[in-house]
Amino acid sequence: MDPLFTWTDFFVLKPAILLSLFGCGILLTDFLLKQGRWNALTALVGEGFVAVALWQHCEDVAANGQRFALGGSMAVDGFSVFFNYIFVVSAILAIIIASRYMDDEKSNRGEFYGLMLFAQAGMTVMAQGYELVTLFIGLELMALSFYVMVGFLRNELRSNEAAMKYLILGALSSGFLAYGFSIFYGMSGSTNLAAIADAVAGREISDPVLLIALVTTSVGLFFKISVVPFHMWAPDVYEGAPTPITAYVSVASKAASFAMMMRIFLVPLVSVQELWMPLFGAVALLTMTLGNIAALTQNNLKRLLAYSSISHAGYILLGLAAGNETGLKGISLYILVYIFMNFGVFALISAMRREGHATEDIDDLNGLMHRHPGYAILMLVLLLSLAGIPPMAGFYGKYFIFLGLLEAGSYLLAIAGALYVAVSAYYYFRIVRAMFLIESLEPAVIAPGLGTKIALVASAVFTLLIGLYPEPFINMATGSILLSLR
Amino acid sequence: MKEHILSIVWLTPLVGMFILLLLPKENKQLIRIVANLAAFAGFLVSLPLVFWFDNSIADYQFVERVSWIPALGVEYYLGIDGISLLLIMLTTVVGFLSILSSWTAIEERVKEYYAFFLFLQAGMLGVFMALDLFLFYVFWEIMLVPMYFIIGIWGHARRLYAAIKFFLYTLAGSVLMLLAMLALYFKHAEQFGVYTFAIEDLMRTQIPLDMQIWLFWGFFIAFAIKVPMFPLHTWLPDAHTEAPTAGSVILAGVLLKMGLYGLVRFSIPLLPEAASDATTVQIIAVLSIIAIVYGALVSLMQKNWKKLIAYSSVSHLGFCTLGIIALNPNGIAGGILQGLNHGLSTPLLFLVIGIVYEQRHALEIADYGGLANRMPIYTTIFLISILASMGMPGLNGFIGEFTILRGAFERDVTWAAFAVLGIVLGAAYLLWLFQRTMLGPMTNPKNEKLRDLNLREICVMAPLVLWCFWIGLYPKQHFEVLEKPVARIVERVDPEYYSRNGIPNPLNEGVRAASLVQD
């Protein structure tokens, strides 16, 4: 009989185990350390250990390829390693931004960092899970941690409201997801993705049961990646949450949900690709339309970025709608560059203060070039990248997505996506306009801590670096795709 | 040195920009000196190109080719032919002169101004050198950003609107071009199994006509916006009118030429069947003719001096596109040469406006009048630029228009007839402008204090005036430079052209055809 817990199981689970251990550790040592920044440091050390574990995963994948553990419910492959690294990088950036921000908000407590690590543990399970219940647990672990973190500014009405909205809508979406999962279980008698793949492949494509399962699962995931028409929570949550958490939600949680989505749609549901590709295409088109148009008139930076992140989700989803290798490469690369460009912008927003209060309107950036030319130029790099202007990193994500669509023959989607680039440039350039073109008598006040400075500079430098020399990053993205498409 | 000359040419302004960024922003005089030196150095390093360039070689010269992104098959691939050579020289000359012309015009945020200008210069030069479509696209896009700032920060009253309009218009066109590029790239990879953006490789792709036509319009819209062609020209009057003088100069002098360059370098040679398709030719010719006549008529009605020149650009560039789409040697060579001519005479016209604007801060034609009485040198230069612009024999505009007319005539007599109408209208609005601003009594007392050109301003304008006379009196060298690249384009769209018309093909070894206008 197999032993219950083998060395391989431990190896595969190591990132999640380390994250949980460090998360619990922070909760325990918090009352001894008393100071937020020590907790942040502990969390960073934890991330270091996770990074090492991931490096071991990476070596293992290079040598042995895909590896399963825990009775086939968890996997290690290029895909999981890539996404886990994305979570590590975004968690590190979120932690170093949060350290100063939460001090300023007088809410710098240990639980905060503990929750960040728990959320990340959930994400690693989402990226590695190969079984519906495991994936679901990972998702819920992540989501529950986020509900608390979003509402962490207890004295702020907006933060409370955001947490409540997020919780209710999140629970609803989980319900949809669980419903879809239960049908898959009913069809196959198993929760393992490989077994479900066999059951799905054996069915007619027009089978209504299959359609219901597919649609409910999609709806649950659409909530998580905030695409139209399930995006309503995003602007409020982004606006209300503490800024580092806004960045963390918009990048890491979205990346994890995309990872889970790809696991489900590219493994068990790949045989019914014809069924979901048009669905994703339509949803992506709606998402880009709404996200871009709603962003045009926003004056609050965080809301603007919320809508912009909705439209970015639309672009990423187009990669799945293309349904070919290039499209998948595009998704991975897009998510990779999105960490840097988005975190950079949020790092700057988190540092905007006036008389001790956080300010977050576009007008508050007026005249930034005059007062802080360095920050203005870094922001320019990030915004150009978000708009997809070469040679910034953001361009390459779009490049692959468009190429994928053209290869798949979806010309109209490609044209729509391309034209929305011009629309999105308008609202990103509203920020540029405030920073560079408008002279302000009362210039913007930016007071970043050391961590925020590092995050901002590193993000902008990476954005430019990936843009000028994308080769290694493209190869990384190539190594991450799930090669199960037809 | 010789093998890296192109990189040196486009990187010099960029290096200048970085040096500029290190200077303290309070020391405006030092910044001006360094910026001018950098721009002048940019001109000097481009000068060897003229001497080293070999007219007898039909292929690209000074080629630099290094792999940049192997995963995508993107290369850092530079090279020039005669068309690029003329435009690069135009860029380094006009770029330097416009920086020189800003000495007293720009008083605020001086350091940023020159930094953006040098960055723009580098981007524009890159556009004219890139032989890899991807690299071309990068230069093409990145150059929008400094121009946005130049219009948006140092422009006139409606600068914010004009800047974003310019930016979005061009961006919308270029994303469509990106799709066409990617489709071509994918098609090529499908047929040859190699991913590459190098244009001579992409030219080998076999593309069915209907797809070619789609791709052609994808490219065309991007270039037509830049040219700008009717009905996509509406950004131009705003951008020109609102930009600071040097911005208008560079916009008219160089940026608009990128559209023409894109047509002859990419659209037509990459998709020859679509370009020579009768419908395509008809549509573009009609749009060009509309641009010629409409631009001229609108110019006649303008009350704003700068806007008048802006609309005259629409009209003049209509000539260029008409010549190019005639798809015969005279038409294409004339179209490119006329682009160059426009890049010399229109900057002169904008510089002339800039000089009185700096002193009077007024752009309405009605504000001026009788300036000839007080400003004789100024009036002379203005007259020369007007005559150059309207196509007076002995000056450059005549040579360009005449060659285009020959090309158009060969293709279709009606085209030539409409183009002649444009020339007549052009003479009307330009001479009327001259009459209203320069001649007659000086009625507005504010103009009494206007001073004539100083030495720096003469130095800014003199090279352009000399170049105008050079082309006007002895254009031979220019046509020689253009001969082979033009023949290559004609060869692509109409391989039979030379044998059918009994003209010796300049591409054939040993045949040194005489200059095109002298045969």
**What value does the average pLDDT of chain A take?**
90
The percent of residues in helical segments of chain A reads: over 70%
As a percent range, the share of helical residues of chain B equals over 70%
Strand-residue proportion of chain B: under 5%
List the helices and strands and how they pair.
The complex is a heterodimer of chains A (486) and B (519).
Chain A: H1 7-33, H2 36-64, E1 67-69, E2 74-76, H3 78-104, H4 110-128, H5 132-150, H6 157-188, H7 193-201, H8 208-224, H9 233-240, H10 243-266, H11 273-295, H12 301-322, H13 325-350, E3 353-354, E4 357-358, H14 368-371, H15 373-387, H16 393-408, H17 411-437, H18 450-468, H19 471-480
Antiparallel strand pairs in A: 1-2, 3-4
Chain B: H1 5-22, H2 28-52, E1 61-69, E2 74-80, H3 82-101, H4 110-129, H5 133-142, H6 144-154, H7 159-192, H8 199-202, H9 209-226, H10 235-242, H11 245-270, H12 272-276, H13 278-301, H14 305-325, H15 329-360, H16 376-390, H17 396-411, H18 413-438, H19 455-473, H20 476-493, H21 497-501
Antiparallel strand pairs in B: 1-2
What would the keywords be for this entry?
heterodimer; A: 486 residues; mainly alpha; two-stranded antiparallel ribbon; B: 519 residues; 21 helices; 2 strands; disordered C terminus
